[in-house]
Write a structure and sequence with these properties.
Elements (H helix, E strand, L loop, with lengths): L43 E3 L2 E3 L12 H4 L19 E9 L5 H19 L21 E7 H6 L30 E7 L2 H15 L3 E10 L32 H5 L14 E10 L1 H4 L4 H8 L36 H4 L11 E2 L2 E7 L5 E11 L6 H9 L8 E11 L11 H4 L2
Antiparallel strand pairs: 1-2, 3-5, 3-6, 4-5, 4-11, 7-10, 7-11, 8-10, 9-10
Helix pairs in contact: 2-4
Length: about 425
């Protein structure tokens, strides 16, 4: 597993402006909050699309968490450089038998329309469930990608990027193929669990007869405001998780993370490639280690994320520093040493995962770990070389297991009036 690292980047807050959608009452789910003691709110239907009933003239203001909004339209899709969200859902779909390019285009058109509305804090265009009616946008993002198999099913093999070639096998893989890959991939994130679930349900319903769910996973992160000040998140091993992530302010960020506007194929301009891995953490074994042993495995102090060579969290790691016995302070097989870009030919990726916990096995072992998601302009120059090196001697490998895997081409953002993937499906 490449060094756990999460993006701290956030897009500036923007005012929430909502326009009525055709066939609905035009009242946003935000407007239903109402003032204390308000009564008589009823769910109505119009033209087959469920809308929200009229609210009192003055509504209770949303908290900052509820009012935060990400933009659907833009150069890049949302959910890549946006700040970490408290709740996430990952879901992959396979096109139904007989469905092809035409059906896929109609599906992406529906999904894009739904995502745009939900990210603005509005009701879904069709059959809204009302699950998130009391909440605002809550930093909701919805991101869409295409798997390797999508292109064969739609007759678009000539448009399949070479960067989407299947990932090689790794020694730490124990992959469940039924929960890996897929024709289409959707990433959903929000700072409210109901808002995230509402989006998941709307996307699933929009799939209709065109596609069926192949697999679905749920994740979480620390809630915004849970710490005294903004700080790097922690994973389920208790380690700070995000110290060395590339930052959008870095001069080479776009080159490393996004396909250039002049890149090939043309429909992937300003897009990125997402590697998705469900990495189970063997927490019972990990938690038996002493604190010094855990820190030696990672190469960083657990309390503050500082390198064992000294300094603070962001202090550059001194790989040559030795102790009084002449041994490296940061062990040769420490996870943080192996994953450093300068130890991997400059390979870098933007890591933006969620933690997960899917219950406790019959023997008492927690099924928990990391929904690892990393973004890069080319996985053959990002994820693959780092993971190959980890395979050869990462101290952390003993305490993790890669159980699912997927690689998806995530096109650039949709312009106003476009849907995601339109340049591929209609080009």
């Amino acid at each position: 597993m490449p060094e756990p690292s999460l993006s701290e980047a956030r897009t500036p807050d923007a005012p929430v402006t909502r326009q009525p959608a055709p066939g609905t009452s035009g009242i946003s789910r935000r407007a239903l909050i109402g003032t204390a003691g308000a009564t008589g709110l009823a769910l109505g239907a119009a033209g087959g699309a469920v809308g929200y009933a009229a609210a009192p003239a003055e509504a209770t203001p949303l908290t900052s968490v509820g009012s935060d909004r990400a933009m659907f339209h833009g150069k890049h899709q949302p959910g890549i450089t946006d700040g970490l969200q408290a709740r996430g859902h990952l879901v992959a779909f396979d096109l139904a038998a007989g469905a092809g390019r035409k059906e896929a285009a109609a599906l992406l058109r529906r999904w894009s329309a739904t995502a745009e509305r939900l990210m603005a804090g509005e009701a879904a265009p069709h059959g809204d469930t009302g699950v998130a009616r009391d909440a605002g946008p809550s930093s909701l993002t919805v991101t869409f990608g295409f798997g390797h198999s999508f292109f064969g099913r739609t007759g678009l093999e000539k448009q399949r990027p070479t960067a989407l070639d299947p990932l090689p096998a790794f020694s730490s893989d124990r992959l469940d193929r039924s929960r890996s890959d897929g024709d289409l991939w959707v990433q959903i994130g929000a700072n409210d669990a109901l808002v995230a679930f509402h989006a998941l349900r709307a996307i699933q319903k929009d799939a209709g007869s065109a596609a069926r769910v192949r697999w679905q996973m749920n994740g979480f992160n620390r809630s915004p405001g849970a710490t005294a000040h903004p700080m790097t998140a922690r994973n389920l091993m208790g380690q700070l998780d995000g110290t060395r992530n590339p930052k959008p302010a870095d001069a080479d960020f776009d080159r490393r993370i996004f396909v250039p506007a002049s890149g090939e194929p043309a429909w992937m301009a300003n897009g990125s490639y997402a590697v998705v891995r469900r990495i189970r953490m063997l927490l019972d074994d990990w938690e038996k280690l002493s604190l010094p042993a855990q820190e030696a495995v990672i190469g960083r102090r657990k309390a503050d994320g500082a390198p064992l060579s000294g300094g603070g969290e962001t202090t550059p790691m001194d790989l040559e520093k030795a102790d009084a016995k002449g041994e490296y302070v940061v062990p040769l097989n420490a996870h943080a040493r192996i994953t450093r870009p300068d130890q991997n030919g400059g390979a870098a990726m933007l890591r933006r995962p969620f933690s997960y916990h899917d219950g406790i096995d019959a023997d008492g072992t927690p099924d928990a770990g990391l929904l690892f998601i990393c973004w890069q302009a080319d996985p053959l120059r990002g994820f693959v070389p780092v993971q190959r090196k980890l395979d050869r001697g990462d101290a952390l490998s003993k305490y993790i297991r890669h159980e699912t895997s997927g690689l998806f081409a995530v096109p650039g953002g949709a312009a106003k009036g476009e849907y995601v993937g339109q340049r591929l499906l209609e080009g």
